[in-house]
Every structure is written in C-alpha cells, then in structure tokens.
Write a structure and sequence with these properties.
The complex is a heterodimer of chains A (about 150) and B (about 180). Chain A is mainly α and about 150 residues long. Chain A is built from four helices and no strands. Chain B is mostly helical and about 180 residues long. Chain B starts with a helix and ends with a helix. Classes of the chains: A mainly alpha (about 150), B mainly alpha (about 180). At the A-B interface, α1, α3 and α4 of A face α1, α2, α3, α5 and α6 of B.
Amino acid sequence: MMGTPERELAAAQTALAAEHAAIYGYAVVGAHLSGDERARAIAVYQAHRRRRDELARLIAAEKQAPTPAAAAYRLPFAIESAQDARKLAGRLEDGLAQAYAALVAAGGKDMRGLGAAALAEAAATAAEWRGSTTAFPGLAGGVGAN
Amino acid sequence: MAESSLAGAGGSLRHPLSRRHVLAAAGIVAAAAVSGCTRNSSDRPVSDQPSLDAAARDRILADKAAILATYSATIERHPTLRKPLDGFVRRHTAHVDALKRALAATPAGSATTTRNPHQTRIAPQQSMAVRALADAEQAATERRRSVIESALSGTFAALVASIAACENAHALLLRAEADR
C-alpha cells in the first residue's frame, strides 16, 4: 500500500468495518442454514475473516490503528428462517460491495486490485445467495438501469 | 455501527460509529465516489485523463459488442435460451450505456466488433453453449483488471470494477444455469 493517501486509508478502514459486520452477520446466517448451505456460509465466513486480517495488516503497516469490530450489531430484520438467512447474506455482500467499490475509487494501484477482487467476490457471493445479480454491484443508485 | 454496517439499512445504533461508516454502509460514500472524486486529480495534467481512460473505455466497449454478439448468436442457435439470458443481455446493455456516459468530455467512438456473430461457433448442446458464455464472462472479468489498476480516474476505475464484478456474478449464474 504505497504512498497511501488519506482517502485510500479511510476507504480501507470503511471496508474493514464492513468485513467486521459481515463476519458477525455470517455467524447468524450459518446458524439458520443446514447442510450444503451451512457449509457454504461457513466457508464464506472464513473468507471474510481472511479478508479482514489482510485489510487490518495493510492498515497497520501504515501505522494506523485498524478499526475494531463493534461489540454487537443489530440485525436489520429478524432472522427466523433459512430464507431470512439467505436474504441477510445477500445484504451483507451488498454492504461489502459498496465499501470495496469506494476503495477502488479512492485507492492506488495495489488497493484497487484488492478492492476490485473483493468487489467481484462479493457480487458473485450475493448472486449465489439470491440466484440473481444487479448490473452495477457496489454502486448505489446503479449508474442507470439495473 | 450496528444495524447500518450489517446490512446497509438505516436504524438506531448500539455502538457509536463515525458518520463516515454510517454513510458507507448506506452506500452513500460509494455513490459520492462514482459521482465526482478523481484520483490523482491534483497531480496529473487533466489532459492525460481523457485520452488514456477514454482509450480503455473504447476497448471495453468493443469487447462488450463482441460479448453481446455472442449472446445473440447463442440465442439464435438455442431460442429457448432467450428468456433465461434476457437479464444478462440487459445488464451488458446497461454497462454499454454507462460506459458511453463515462468520461463525458471525450465521447465514445462507435463501438464495432470485428467478430461476426455468425462466425462465432455456438455449441449445438445447450448446456455447452451456456458454459461457453460463462467462460466468456469470466475471461471478461479478468481482462478488466489492468484497466482498473491503471485508470487515471478513480471514478472510472470504480465503474469498470463494478462492471467486472457483474461479469463475475454472470459467470457463476451461467454455470448454475448450465448445470440445471
């Protein structure tokens, strides 16, 4: 993360906060799924932990304190079924996609690479949970039609 | 940042959070990023930006024309795919529209493809044809990487990254469709 301008670092912190939230959320998602879907939720949870650690390392390398996780997060709606869990998982990936699109916009070459890869992963994972995608993952308002 | 950071919905917070985080979770930061901010705007001559990024945009537009031609040829060969592929075609068309609007100072040239759809070989087996589209989407995602990393405009880089992310999701959905 060379030369790290302030904007890039702020965007990285925002992405880290989104990963913290996703990790919390996926624990809830996994608890409401079974079989292959539960295994998939656990794999995604672990992938988000790796991404969190990677971001925290990059931020620490810039002598900044990585944004810590919150003690607790309030869920956006009650999770009572597998369907709710899939819906929450899609929303978590949407939040990550937005944070990573912002990181691409603010980042230098290396951070853009990381942001673009994470954005692509979030879009594919959201599509997996929903069975559909939008035209502009991570761009709120959709830059026109979705 | 409780509710907002979890799922992008507004709501009361149990954990104090900076305004930036709340905005980011709501997607507003991302929206602002694509609507105005430009990386290197202060340290690059403005004149570099249109030519380099516009050239990249025009290459992506030509690529998109080829992808859309492959979709057309696939639907022509397998008419029952028209409905399942409709959303994919519409999203690619939306990308073309957004790319044409991007970098408004340098209008896009008319994107043409050298690949004639009728020269594109479409597998006679439907599932193979869909899998070929999945492979084309995956390859497209990978071709975007260098543009994203080298674009002078951060706004443009984010647009291309979003398009690449959609193509990546397309590849996954098309593989699922092929396995159906």
